[in-house]
Amino acid sequence: MTATATSARSDLSELGRSETALRTFLHGLPGVDQVGAEQRAAQLGTRSIKTTAKAEAIDLAIRMVDLTTLEGADTPGKVRALATKALRPDPADPSCPHVGAVCVYPAMVPYVAEVLRGSAVHLASVATAFPSGQAPLEVKLADTRAAVEAGADEIDMVINRGAFLAGRYSEVYDEIVATKEACGDAHLKVILETGELATYDNVRRASWLAMLAGGDFIKTSTGKVPVAATPPVTLVMLEAVRDFRAATGRQVGVKPAGGIRTTKDAIKYLVMVNETVGPDWLDPDWFRFGASSLLNDLLMQRTKLTTGVYSGPDYFTLD
Questions:
Q1: What pLDDT, in 10s, does the model give residues 52-109?
Q2: Catalytic residue at 180?
Q3: Cis (ω within 30 of 0) for the bond into 97?
Q4: Which of 140, 180, 189, 219 is catalytic?
Q5: Which of 40, 142, 192, 249 fits as disulfide partner to 206, beta carbons 3.0 to 4.6 Å?
Q6: 50 classed as catalytic
């Protein structure tokens, strides 16, 4: 890290001490050109890649999947089966890579931990009163600690969107700081719920707020509201992590989640990552897909490339 970056990081770390300073900084960020962002995202979505590169992109996308089930009807048997699939997505092909993580509710963490123990697949858990974030802070922190103690090494927290939209930035900042502390050694992904933030400017501000407070990843969505991840929103978040690293020397990951279902969609996002922030982020440590049905499509397309035969969706287990 350069001396300039070190100084900038030190200066930025002081922002959370003052609501006024935090507000001044966040509202002083450059505004997002809505038309420009949407056109840029659409343009990147038209890029095509050759067969060899496509095969590599599919394997990379598989390694970036946070295989997710967040339903009230989840059972120990269901999440164990999901964890088994995460380890060997295609049992018939040992060359198929494992996914990045399995993401479940805190109550399901112990059952997933049984299956993933000793593997390279991470165990993520949503916490902090997911998906609303509307609970007292002590409840959110207890939720987080319980998930970590049960075996989660990644926590996906939700910000209090009501507080953010009301301009109570210090309240949101302090909750992220406290949750990060409650995580211990676990990584913290901060869910912005961008579909409720209304503007790209708010997405940029929320991204910076989450990073300033210590988030290891910024994540678009819970998947529980009608508008989840979109290419323009993800572009704005990628630009934010790029600019944050330039200012502080600290790299932060990005996780679009919700509505990403096809290989074509995933590859569009990978192109966007490469063109916006570069190859440093083309790694499961720095970019993930929050998805449930995406993996099956990736597996079907992978089988088609390697065998020439397109297997139907019933060839793979349902997620």
A1: 899 999 999 999 999 999 999 999 999 999 999 999 999 999 999 999 999 999 999 9
A2: no
A3: no
A4: 219
A5: 192
A6: no
